[in-house]
Amino acid sequence: MQIKTVLIAAMAACATAQDISKIPACAIDCIIKTNPLSGCNSVLETLDFPCLCLTGEEYNNAIATCIVGACTNLNDVLAMVQWKTDACALYGVVWP
């Protein structure tokens, strides 16, 4: 349950100007499936980074739940959290 809490706090968005090739493969489907909940106008190749970094609780919960279920390797989960954190920092959104 703690992993989900960390993801919810750290995953307000799953997108950035960072190299998307660094996103763990297990998380890609989650980004695609939960994108409609974000309210942002995005597809994986052209993500609305500032919007995704400021999304609401419904999106955060959905993507966190999906990633925890899809990424069975803790290192992949942590890599996704780090990727999101670094990415959103580029837009001035700082996560604890």
From TrEMBL:
Signal peptide start-end: 1-17
All copies of domain CFEM, residue ranges: 1-96
GO MF annotations, alphabetized: metal ion binding
Cited PROSITE patterns: CFEM
Taxonomic superkingdom: Eukaryota
Subcellular location: Membrane; Secreted
Recorded topology in the membrane: Lipid-anchor; GPI-anchor
Record key words, sorted: Disulfide bond, Glycoprotein, GPI-anchor, Heme, Iron, Lipoprotein, Membrane, Metal-binding, Secreted, Signal
Record: residues binding heme: 48
InterPro entries: Extracellular_membr_CFEM_dom
Gene Ontology annotations for the cellular component aspect, listed alphabetically: extracellular region; side of membrane
Family per similarity comment: Belongs to the RBT5 family.
Protein name: CFEM domain-containing protein
Lineage of origin: Eukaryota, Fungi, Dikarya, Ascomycota, Pezizomycotina
